[in-house]
Design goal:
single chain, about 70 residues, about 75% helix
């Protein structure tokens, strides 16, 4: 997710609050299958590393479901 990468890049030079990223999560995942649960989990994250791990896990589960069909 490019937003998390940009956040990490500029957070070192400026004080930024992670909470400001949360407002974008709903926009980014709204069209995905399972968006409601993913959005709920994303809203409880505290770091960009947690976001990346959650998205990686979500993607792996989605691929596994697609392979079953």
């Amino acid at each position: 997710m490019i937003t998390t990468s940009l956040f990490d890049k500029y957070a070192t030079s400026e004080t930024r609050q992670f909470k400001s990223l949360r407002r974008f999560f709903k926009i980014y995942v709204r069209s995905m299958r399972g968006a409601s649960e993913l959005r709920h989990q994303l809203m409880s994250t505290e770091t960009t590393d947690e976001v990346r791990a959650l998205l990686d896990e979500f993607e792996a589960q989605d691929v596994m479901i697609d392979n079953l069909h």
